[in-house]
TrEMBL record:
Residue ranges of every copy of the GST N-terminal domain listed in the record: 1-82
Residue ranges of domain GST C-terminal in the record: 83-206
PROSITE patterns per UniProt: GST_CTER, GST_NTER
Pfam family, one: GST_N_2
Record protein name field: Glutathione S-transferase family protein
């Protein structure tokens, strides 16, 4: 059985839960309250030296970290990861998530929407808003002519980008500026097997 190490509000862990559900793969969750530091223990670091969630333990006992690498592994051989040039295009948008969007969207969401201490990141927030708006604008332009990021079908390119874009409003982004993105968010939420972010969990706080 798969074991997913996650935290309740992590968008990177959410995308893995969505794909596990969409593939019908049973899994067990080990949930962390991130500030408690249990992802930095020697036992955790032996499996994931980065000390972050998500981490997926495979039925073989081997561990994988980095959400988008986990998606690639799970989607191998399924329609969620096509072959040929479209495969490279899927990877292109997954790298876009990590390099252009994630840090800005997740940083603003955490300090404004979750920690509610924007004053502690007064210098960073305008930088995150500028970078996040740039990324959202790129996505909106790309989605003006298509329903999904690659090949007119739902793939892990969409899933990789979905969580932090869908939660960007929590970080103070005005999503009314991005109508193609908001229509795409609705399309992703409507995919068979989609599961929401865990709302109520006695364990994971962040
Ligand atoms: N690039 C990584 C980012 C993982 C990441 O930043 N995880 C956060 C939660 S979303 C975390 O574990 N933070 C705890 C920490 O930094 O100590 C991925 O996509 O999996």
């Amino acid at each position: 059985m798969y074991v997913l190490h996650d935290s309740r509000l992590s968008g990177n862990a959410w995308k893995v839960r969505i794909l596990l559900s969409q593939l019908g793969l049973p899994f067990r969750r080990v949930s962390y309250v991130l500030p408690e530091g249990r992802t930095r223990t020697p036992e955790f670091l032996a499996k994931n030296p980065v000390g972050k969630v998500p981490m997926l333990e495979l039925p073989s006992g081997e561990a994988l970290f980095e959400s988008n690498a986990i998606l690639c592994h799970l989607a191998e051989g399924t329609p969620f990861l096509p072959e040929g040039l479209d495969r490279a295009r899927v990877l292109q948008w997954m790298f876009f998530d990590q390099s252009e969007a994630l840090k800005a969207l997740a940083g603003a969401r955490f300090w404004i929407g979750i920690a509610k201490k924007p004053e502690e990141k007064a210098a960073e927030i305008p930088v995150w808003h500028a970078a996040g708006n740039k990324a959202l604008g790129i996505l909106d332009g790309h989605l003006a002519a298509r329903d999904f990021l690659v090949g007119e079908r739902y793939t892990i390119a969409d899933l990789a980008n979905f969580p932090y874009v869908a939660m960007a409003h929590e970080g103070g982004f005005d999503m009314a500026r991005y109508p193609n993105v908001t229509a795409w968010i609705d399309r992703i939420r409507a995919q068979p097997g989609h599961v929401p972010l865990i709302q109520d969990d006695a364990k994971g706080v962040v």
